[in-house]
């Protein structure tokens, strides 16, 4: 799950290092799928990488001003927060305190209102230990992000829901729910949509993990509507979207939603996983469609090229964005030259246009943003990225940490940013 603050085939001209042949050739030779041809196809003139640079200066220039303000606010906030509930196994007096992990990527709803979501947990911000205990809280700004009201739990509206039972899928102390990738979305009907993943419970009230994955989760969406005063959000929750552990070992999480040109039609592409592998799990991302503004969703099916061909992708974060310049929707994520094993390999990172009729990735548009270079470690990770549109230029800007997932303390070349022109 997401743990971060979201090319032309000719590679990156500004840093034109050749691909490290031993690793790349090994991947290519092992791959017999038709999808391998995207690595050899001619450059697509509708997408081009303008430049790559070390650091995040270009990213900082592109992000919305309320994000900058939010970063300044949370830097001075304490790391603990009082919680309005008590666990059955608690040994500390009420009010108990928990860790709060605040996110700077608020939804800028309009020129006055912003909504920011945080994760609260008794444990560290770690997927395996933290996720089953995590809860989502929120706060609202009505002055363009200068100030926010107090953080409080996100609770589905209805008398049956409380801080201990915040929505129909979660019971605090038994299971948790957390952000599931992507940004908070404003839909064309004015509602707020934000996907989350949760740890399902079995018939005995224990966390359900059918094939023993690192974690296992299903997905649902928070649906927010402003109250009459316009200064707070009334939360509802969609029908959940489930998938068999025989198809995806860790279920689904880290979603990339985008509203299509047809109002109320929302495509959501989600991360899957094939580790552990019992022989039936797929190495891919999964797609689902809502036609009623996120209330209900279709069953998950494989996210493919518009040609109908399948492609391999690791268990990794991806995102989607609609360009105000072109009007097109784009998917950004990892596509692999060979069948991944769990999270790896997380390179290259690519961008491509979404075909809104077939709900697929337009194969001829797939463009490499960054890839394995000579001197990079075998565990190179090009994932857990930020994605935003520069409001001044219409360019898409990505930032990520070029790191080694096998040796997390090594950062390879550290933080990099990429500027992409779309036409």
Structure report:
With 423 residues, the protein is mainly beta. It folds into 2 domains: 1-62 and 304-423, no CATH class; 64-255, no CATH class. 7% of the residues lie in helices and 31% in strands. Strands 2, 3, 4, 5, 6 and 7 form a 6-stranded antiparallel sheet that branches. Strands 1, 22, 23, 24 and 25 form a 5-stranded antiparallel sheet that branches. It starts with 20 loop residues before the first helix and ends with a strand.
H-E string: HEHHEEEEHEEEEEEEEEEEEEEEEEEEE
Round the Cα radius of gyration to an integer and report it. 21 Å
Globally, the shape reads globular
What class, by secondary structure content?
A: mainly beta
Q: How many separate helices? A: 4
Distance between the termini: 32 Å
Work out the number of β strands: 25
Helix content: under 10%
Number of structurally distinct domains = 2
Largest sheet: 6 strands, antiparallel
- How much of the polypeptide forms β-strand, as a percent range? 25-35%
Whole-number mean pLDDT: 89
Poorly predicted parts: 1-35
What labels describe this entry?
423 residues; mainly beta; 2 domains; 6-stranded antiparallel beta sheet; 5-stranded antiparallel beta sheet
């Amino acid at each position: 799950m997401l743990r971060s603050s979201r090319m032309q085939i000719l590679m990156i001209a500004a840093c034109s290092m050749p691909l490290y042949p031993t690793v790349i050739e090994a991947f290519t030779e092992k791959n017999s799928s038709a999808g391998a041809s995207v690595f050899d196809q001619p450059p697509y003139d509708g997408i081009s990488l303008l430049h790559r640079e070390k650091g995040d200066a270009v990213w900082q220039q592109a992000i919305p001003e309320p994000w900058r303000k939010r970063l300044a606010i949370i830097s001075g906030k304490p790391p603990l927060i009082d919680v309005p509930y008590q666990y059955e196994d608690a040994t500390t007096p009420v009010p108990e305190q928990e860790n709060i992990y605040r996110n700077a990527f608020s939804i800028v709803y309009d020129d006055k209102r912003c909504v920011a979501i945080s994760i609260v947990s008794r444990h560290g911000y770690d997927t395996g230990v933290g996720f089953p205990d995590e809860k989502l809280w929120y706060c609202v700004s009505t002055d363009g992000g200068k100030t926010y009201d107090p953080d409080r739990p996100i609770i589905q509206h209805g008398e049956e829901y409380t801080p201990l039972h915040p929505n129909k899928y979660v019971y605090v102390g038994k299971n948790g729910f957390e952000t599931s990738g992507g940004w908070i979305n404003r839909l064309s009907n004015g509602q707020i949509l934000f996907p989350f993943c949760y740890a399902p419970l079995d018939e005995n009230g224990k966390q359900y993990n059918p094939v023993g994955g690192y974690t296992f989760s299903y997905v649902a969406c928070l649906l927010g509507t402003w109250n009459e005063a316009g200064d707070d959000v009334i939360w509802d929750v969609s029908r959940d979207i489930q998938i068999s552990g025989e198809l995806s070992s860790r279920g689904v999480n880290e979603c990339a939603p985008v509203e299509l040109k047809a109002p109320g039609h929302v495509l959501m592409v989600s991360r899957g996983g094939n580790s552990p592998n019992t022989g039936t799990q797929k190495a891919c991302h999964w797609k689902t469609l809502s036609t009623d503004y996120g209330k209900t969703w279709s069953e998950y099916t494989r996210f493919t090229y518009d040609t109908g061909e399948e492609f391999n992708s690791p268990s990794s974060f991806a995102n989607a964005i609609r360009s105000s310049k072109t009007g097109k929707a784009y998917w950004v994520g990892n596509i692999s030259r060979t069948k991944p094993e769990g999270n790896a390999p997380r390179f290259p990172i690519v961008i491509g246009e979404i075909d809104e009729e077939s709900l697929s990735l337009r194969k001829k548009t797939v463009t490499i943003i960054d890839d394995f270079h000579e001197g990079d470690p075998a565990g190179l990770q090009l994932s857990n990225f930020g994605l935003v549109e520069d409001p001044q230029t219409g360019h898409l800007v990505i930032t990520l940490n070029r790191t080694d997932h096998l040796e997390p303390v090594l950062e390879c070349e550290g933080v990099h940013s990429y500027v992409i022109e779309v036409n």
